[in-house]
Amino acid sequence: QKEVEQDPGPLSVPEGAIVSLNCTYSNSAFQYFMWYRQYSRKGPELLMYTYSSGNKEDGRFTAQVDKSSKYISLFIRDSQPSDSATYLCAMRPYGGSQGNLIFGKGTKLSVKP
Amino acid sequence: DAGITQSPRHKVTETGTPVTLRCHQTENHRYMYWYRQDPGHGLRLIHYSYGVKDTDKGEVSDGYSVSRSKTEDFLLTLESATSSQTSVYFCAITSEGGYTFGSGTRLTVV
Asked: What is d(CA B52, CA B70) in angstroms, rounded to the nearest whole number?
């Protein structure tokens, strides 16, 4: 089993839809959880960052972490065509080497006008 | 991308030649990283640095070496390029909550 699993999609939704993106993981030591957005031919950009369990909201974006289920989610409300991108989850344990940020393979999202 | 630049942006090279990619940051960050991104594999860590002359291997370090003689520059060298090293290479620095990535170098080995 891979440490981080993410459905690659592609996921296609109409403009205005609520989008749910998810990752599962196997390492119970993971404490920091991130979501990155990557537009075509660009570098990933940090979208959301959470520590441990719970929810975090930023505008139309909500990140959820359920450590008991080893499951994280990113919700996008009122999705826009500009949200079309690949979304990568990433996570790492508390402390330890700074080199052990583990990425999911990314989910490609397309929001149709 | 705030404070981090990669060069070149694109490069085509021949099998067996050495290639050096450069990452430059202006924010005095201690940690710098080199990743490669390939379809079906996602982002994989090649090497990282935690200070001048301090580096460590990542998941896919074979065939790559790095050097960091100044805080601001982190160089990635493909000692003898192979077709399997055709990829998009990203440099990153540690920022609040996560990493900030450069715009990437698209390398093709023919």
From this structure: 6
